[in-house]
Amino acid sequence: xxxxxxxxxxxxxxxxxxxxxxxxxxxxxxxxxxxxxxxxxxxxxxxxxxxxxxxxxxxxxxxxxxxxxxxxxxxxxxxxxxxxxxxxxxxxxxxxxxxxxxxxxxxxxxxxxxxxxxxxxxxxxxxxxxxxxxxxxxxxxxxxxxxxxxxxxxxxxxxxxxxxxxxxxxxxxxxxxxxxxxxxxxxxxxxxxxxxxxxxxxxxxxxxxxxxxxxxxxxxxxxxxxxxxxxxxxxxxxxxxxxxxxxxxxxxxxxxxxxxxxxxxxxxxxxxxxxxxxxxxxxxxxxxxxxxxxxxxxxxxxxxxxxxxxxxxxxxxxxxxxxxxxxxxxxxxxxxxxxxxxxxxxxxxxxxxxxxxxxxxxxxxxxxxxxxxxxxxxxxxxxxxxxxxxxxxxxxxxxxxxxxxxxxxxxxxxxxxxxxxxxxxxxxxxxxxxxxxxxxxxxxxxxxx
Length: 449
Prior knowledge:
- By secondary structure, the protein is α/β, with parallel strands linked by helices.
- It folds into 2 domains: 2-249 and 427-448, 3-Layer(aba) Sandwich (Rossmann fold), CATH 3.40.50.2000; 268-420, Glycogen Phosphorylase B (Rossmann fold, 3-Layer(aba) Sandwich), CATH 3.40.50.
- 47% of the residues lie in helices and 14% in strands.
- The protein has helices at residues 17-31, 55-58, 72-77, 83-90, 102-113, 123-135, 141-159, 169-183, 195-199, 205-217, 226-235, 281-294, 309-318, 333-341, 358-364, 392-404, 406-420, 425-448, and strands at 2-6, 35-39, 46-50, 62-63, 164-168, 187-191, 220-223, 243-245, 268-272, 299-303, 325-329, 345-348, 368-372, 385-387.
- The chain has an 8-stranded mixed β-sheet with strand order 4-3-2-1-5-6-7-8, sandwiched between helices. A 6-stranded parallel β-sheet has the order 11-10-9-12-13-14, sandwiched between helices.
- Helix 7 packs parallel to helix 8 (169-183) and helix 15 (358-364) crosses helix 17.
């Protein structure tokens, strides 16, 4: 079984949780014997034929020339000291929407316009593609990059042999839809977050419609939690019969000894994630203000970047929190491990969180975690404090209790670490592989009939 996996992020290109989710799933699928042709929004036209588990870390690639034929000499002659150097050579950045090429966007427009012809016989299918055509017409870089990825994916599909298309989130749905239409192969729409989640409200109507079209056109949909499944059924009216729930997981790269390194004399409270309305950074700040009034020796760290970073920085300054509320900016993988090693309590008061892998990562380090009830990860963990994102008073009281009872804090953290060990990607990959097989068996049955 070979899968064409379309995703927007993959380590070492990490802009959000999708990167680690894609990595964990792909690595475990390879371990389970599923071959993966991985396709990312790179500057150079390449794809990554992954055939064994270690390939998820080394990312062997095939580069295509102007005629979309393999340039094998690129693979043979070029050597890279690190995976980061390889990805930089291929044109991967942490903001992939910034390197689209206008020429390829124009070619995509020509390709997608053919779907307005009599080639699409069924009115419902025509309507779905017309929806994509209309809602991808944006001047923003990210929409142009989505167009480019869809065009390239269609060309890639002509060169590779695969059994099924797996498209992750709205950014990859148009590519998956085009490949499904041109190849006739079944498609899975994997939804890690909806526009409602990301925007903390209505959001961009174009993205909603692309999400809807992708899930409607897909053969099956994978949601990362019950929370997300309920949302796509109620708000997008997706047929319950095609919605599957597969929770995300966490990959242990190494065993932790749980011996904390001290960066400050007092306890360290960590926010690790995108600084956007979805993650509730303003609630984290409000909690910090309350706690610091009683325990000024505590240090709060906000790690990450996002569109609310400047606002939170200004607000913390106006509250005169000074060096008791710290900002790290973007952290690479090693820096993330370092900040986890020095933290005592992790807190993510997400307003709307389809899943949330970061809490699992924190728990793996023996860090006591406080998460919002409005998160998918709350469905799979027991040894974490679950509080409504808006209940700042309860969050502050919980933090104060943990600060005043360090042994209890450590005990909950260790229980969480042992719990997370059982939440592994292998189990999730087995569920996904079963969904793959059921789709393929169903399609064979229809052909035989």
